Amino acid sequence: MNAGARVSAGPEWTRYRRVSDLGVEVLGAHFVQHVYHRHSHDSYSFGYTEDGAQAFRCRGGAHLSTTGLAMAFNPDDPHDGHTGTPSGFTYRMVHVDPGQVRAALAEAGYKSALPLFTDPVISDPELVNRIRRATDRVLAGTDPLATQEAIDAMLLAAIRRHARSRPPVAGRAGLSNAPVARVRDLLHDRYREDLRAEDLAAAAGCSRFQVYREFQARYGMAPSTYLRQVRLRAARRLLAAGEPPAQAAVAAGFADQAHLTRWFRRAYGITPAVYQRSV
């Protein structure tokens, strides 16, 4: 299946994407008649119900996840699943390798113990938003830096708010100006590349979580947002110089013209074509 590809069968459909180097898989689906037989995953699984209701058994009890509720499964949690309404249900689920969870906790300053979730159905709109953002990023298949940030934010929100056992946090000192400035310089120098959180951490000489916190505090935005701003400004210069929008998009580090147009309009309220004509 192609990355992020959607497959339909009658009223039912699925959309799936796997990112091996991040240790994540995302499934979005709408099911009416499909029934999950009892099974388990070797990963942590976080999801939410977008519409309808899904019923399942897990950890010795029956559960119902309705619109707007989140779900959390530990590795090897046996569960099944089927629709809880005649019209079916729509949901998203992200599976995260335990090794990635352990690495994320270590980066954030936690000790190595893995978390344990006791409630498979969770009422938490903030966590649902975090899961939505993470799955959006993975399914889009672009911007690896923003994807890593969204996955990390989702994991930490789930662990801090809902894990029964949470490893203690070790104290960490803040970064000096120099490492954060090196990250900023890297974003300006290599904005055409698909930069990753590890690239920023290597430039700063610390964990990606510390980079995120300190950069956010220093510049008022996440590194991925700052990178997109740098790319948009590069695209404006190219458009002003007469570069066709499609070529300007790729040269500035965007996936394609549609990707540039979407963010250009969000940032400036007009399309690249309108901007170029006005210049």
What labels describe this entry?
279 residues, alpha+beta, Jelly Rolls, Arc Repressor Mutant, subunit A, 3 domains, ten-stranded antiparallel beta sheet, two-stranded antiparallel ribbon, 10 helices, 25% strand
Continuous helix count: 10
Number of strands: 12
- Structural category is alpha+beta
Q: Which assembly state applies to the chains in this document? A: single chain
Shape: globular
**If you compute it from the alpha carbons, what radius of gyration comes out, rounded to the nearest whole angstrom?**
21 Å
Mean pLDDT figure: 88
Largest sheet: 10 strands, antiparallel
What are the SSEs and their pairings?
Layout: E1 5-9, E2 12-19, E3 24-31, E4 36-39, E5 44-58, E6 61-66, E7 70-73, E8 79-83, E9 89-96, H1 98-107, E10 116-117, E11 121-122, H2 125-140, H3 144-162, E12 163-165, H4 177-189, H5 197-204, H6 208-219, H7 223-240, H8 245-251, H9 257-268, H10 272-278
Antiparallel strand pairs: 1-2, 2-3, 3-9, 4-8, 5-6, 5-7, 5-8, 5-9, 7-11, 10-12
Helix pairs in contact: 2-3, 4-5, 4-6, 4-7, 5-6, 7-8, 8-9
